[in-house]
Amino acid sequence: MDAFVARSLDEIRFWSRIMKEHSLFLKLGFRCEDTQLIQEADGFYRLFEQIEAKAHAFTTATDPQQIQTFNVEVYNAASHIWVFKRKVLGLILTCKLPGANNFPLLVDHTSREANYFRNRLAQLNNGQLEPLADAIIDENVFFLKIMADHAKFIGHLLDPSERKLVEQARDFSHDFDQLLWQAQDLSSMRPQSQTQPLLSQFLDQNRVSVASLRDFKKTARDLIAACRIKSIIHPLLADHVYREAERFLAIIDMFENSLTGKPSPNQGAWH
Length: 271
Ligand SMILES: [Fe+2]
Ligand SMILES: [Fe+2]
What we know:
Number of strands: 0
InterPro entries: CotB-like
Structural class: mainly alpha
CATH superfamily of the largest domain: Protein of unknown function DUF2935
Protein name: DUF2935 domain-containing protein
Bound molecules: fe (ii) ion
Distance between the termini: 18 Å
Organism: Paenibacillus curdlanolyticus YK9
Largest sheet: none
CATH architecture of the largest domain: Up-down Bundle
Low-confidence stretches: none
Number of domains: 2
Pfam family, one: DUF2935
């Protein structure tokens, strides 16, 4: 099995679905009269839908050369949606879309995910993967910020009358802000901070909070799907942020296995 092919397909299958869903969420937040923006969002939805289907049609037996070409194609698509998201952010921040329903932080957040996806594809194609100790810190800094943002979105999209759930979301937001600062401190202390025990403790501590946020998101998702709570959270958005937490957990486990030298199916992906 070719690790490059497997890793590329795994990233594209996960993130193309995420990009497709971002297009839908952005579209739902535009005003009825923003027909141009709605059409652009629809275009990205179809583009990432096609990419997702193509990624599922390829297998680990596909020629690596063909995957390399596909990675470039997807890289370009991710770049284009990044430009679109930054354009929308600019329109919101200059008050050109009064009354629209996309939070600026949400638009910025989705653009950071597009940029992450694009960078992963570039790294895979260039064969220039970060050393393990750097990847551990950088991936955690990226994902902790993503998790902190999710907690804030959930807190603000729940109905204000759901006082207990709003409070829980606020606690998660605080918890992840603290973890993010810790991660940034560890990053600042590089390379001296990159010892096996410190990195291992860092992963353990993050894992505990991510698992607990993941469970909270799962509960919220199920409650929303069953129409048991009041919110303006789209059921697909609830599932979307749950899947991103699962992804982060899988990455943490993969790093832990690499640190301790345990064999892992994704080993070789980052170092
Ligand atoms: Fe997302
Ligand atoms: Fe996200």
